[in-house]
Design a protein that fits this description.
alpha+beta, globular, 163 residues
Length: 163
């Protein structure tokens, strides 16, 4: 797998990756119908395209020439030196292969002036909580509505100091 900046032609494959990963991760928590509703909104081509063209953001994919193995998306905030990691997903068959760490490293390197990277993670997603903890993130609080969505998904807020 090699990492590269995503392009508009990648968006259908990114969407498919996100839908697959979300169902594998969250069907047992929220049920397949709710996961489909969420992915139809959050991971629509239009939503992904808006992220792709956002200024001060990085949207990367892990590609082996045949399929996408993972993706990550982060954006700078209006607060100086803070970056929000909005998405980091690895295809279920490739999880625990080191690909998530590569994606995280690339995101961190993409914002050389940042001093903090922040994210929200579903508390019941124990593998993700363990991944972020292992990679230097610490819980800073929680929110009742992850990403400010209309789906009322509780989440833990994690941060990592950079530099």
């Amino acid at each position: 797998m090699f990492l590269r900046t995503a392009s508009e032609r990648d968006l259908p494959a990114v969407r498919a990756l996100l839908v697959e990963t979300w169902h594998a991760t969250y069907d047992s928590i929220y049920g397949a119908a709710k996961v489909t509703e969420i992915t139809d909104d959050w991971h629509s081509i239009a939503s992904l395209k808006a992220r792709l063209v956002r200024p001060n953001a990085e949207f990367i994919v892990a590609d082996d020439g045949k399929t996408l193995g993972g993706m990550a998306y982060a954006a700078a905030t209006s607060e100086p030196k803070i970056v929000i990691l909005h998405q980091l997903y690895v295809r279920p068959a490739l999880q625990r292969s080191g690909l998530g760490r590569l994606l995280l490293d690339e995101i961190e390197d993409s914002f050389p002036d940042a001093r903090t990277i922040r994210l929200e993670v579903e508390a019941q997603n124990l593998p993700a909580v363990a991944f972020y903890s292992k990679n230097g993130f610490a819980q800073q609080g929680d929110v009742v509505n992850c990403c400010g969505s209309a789906f009322a998904i509780p989440a833990l807020v994690y941060e990592k100091r950079l530099g």
